[in-house]
Design goal:
Length: about 190
C-alpha cells in the first residue's frame, strides 16, 4: 500500500466534548503522517435496530454507515462504558452490521476510554469477534480513569497514555498494511 490508508473512527459517546472525542482528536493528530482519518459523525441518525427493517430495506443512514465501514481500510471504535456495558448507541450501530460482512476480516482497533471500562471493553471485544472483525492485543486499549489522564491537550495529558496511543497507531498501521497486502495477493 503506497498511499495512506483510510481509517474510519467511530465514537460510542454522543457528548460534544467527551473524553472519547479528545482521544480520537489525539489519534488523528498523532497519525496525520500515516493515515487519512475520518470520524463517522452520524450515529444518532441510525434508527433503532429492527431485524424486520434489516430485511425489508434499510434506511439511507444505515446504508451510509455500512458503506463507510466497507470502504475503510481499518476501523477504530472508541467508546466509554455506561453502567458497566457498552453505550446503547454503539451497540445499536454494530447490530446494523451483523447481517453484512462489512466487519469480516476488517482490521479493527478497540479503545475503551472511561472511568472503569473493563466490562465494556470485554463486551466490545466479544461482539466484534462474533462478527469476525480482525482484532489483536496490540490494537486494543483500555484507558481506565480517563478523566484524570486525558486533558484538553496532548501535552497536558498523561504521557503514559499518549505513549500507549502511539504504540496502538504503529501496530494498527502495520495491521492495516498487512491486511491490504493479503487482499491484494488473494485477488491474483
Amino acid at each position: 500500500m503506497s498511499e495512506k490508508p483510510n481509517i474510519l473512527a467511530i465514537s460510542g459517546s454522543t457528548r460534544k466534548e467527551s473524553v472519547n472525542k479528545l482521544v480520537l482528536d489525539f489519534i488523528h493528530f498523532l497519525s496525520a503522517d500515516k493515515w487519512n482519518f475520518a470520524v463517522f459523525k452520524s450515529l444518532t441518525e441510525l434508527p433503532w435496530f429492527n431485524q424486520d427493517d434489516d430485511h425489508d430495506g434499510v434506511s439511507s443512514a444505515v446504508q451510509r454507515f455500512r458503506k463507510s465501514i466497507s470502504s475503510a481500510d481499518g476501523v477504530i471504535i472508541c467508546t466509554p462504558e455506561y453502567v458497566f456495558t457498552l453505550p446503547g448507541i454503539i451497540k445499536n450501530a454494530i447490530e446494523w452490521t451483523v447481517s453484512t460482512t462489512v466487519f469480516s476480516e476488517k482490521p479493527v482497533a478497540l479503545l475503551t476510554v472511561s472511568g472503569l471500562g473493563e466490562k465494556s471493553h470485554e463486551s466490545l471485544k466479544l461482539v466484534m469477534k462474533a462478527i469476525y472483525a480482525s482484532l489483536d492485543d496490540d490494537t486494543n486499549l483500555l484507558i481506565s480513569g480517563a478523566g484524570s489522564k486525558i486533558k484538553s491537550t496532548i501535552s497536558d495529558s498523561d504521557p503514559a497514555v499518549i505513549n500507549q496511543l502511539n504504540k496502538l497507531i504503529e501496530a494498527f498501521t502495520i495491521k492495516v498494511k498487512i491486511s491490504a497486502e493479503e487482499k491484494f495477493n488473494s485477488s491474483y
